Amino acid sequence: MFENAKQLKALAGMLGNLSGLKEKFEQMQAELEKKTAEGEAGGGAVRATVNGKMKLVGLHLDTAMLVAAAGGGEEQAAASRERLEAMIVDAVDDAQQKAVAMAGEAFRDAGGPGGEGDGPDLDQLTKMLGG
Question: Which UniProt keywords are present, listed alphabetically (predicted)?
Fold first, then answer.
């Protein structure tokens, strides 16, 4: 009950400065689009880069890994492809998790709630703003 009251108080404070908050939010989004986070899998053999808006903007596949994967027969190639696909998914997921953390930090720096119990979290605020 008191937790909801704290969240409502924090929300009321933010709504009191809605135009300033909207301006900060737009500035934060523009800055996040320029920032990147890199995730990796397979000991760095696969690296994925996403921007702060979670868009995949880069993918690196290690040449030595590709050469090793190309050798062998059809069965080995299929297994290599499956491992490569799994590593790509893992690298993108790793990069996106880092980008989410980066976005949360940017949100707090822009004047959003500072942490747990200090108002709505990033997901709640996104839903409130129609996202």
Answer: Coiled coil
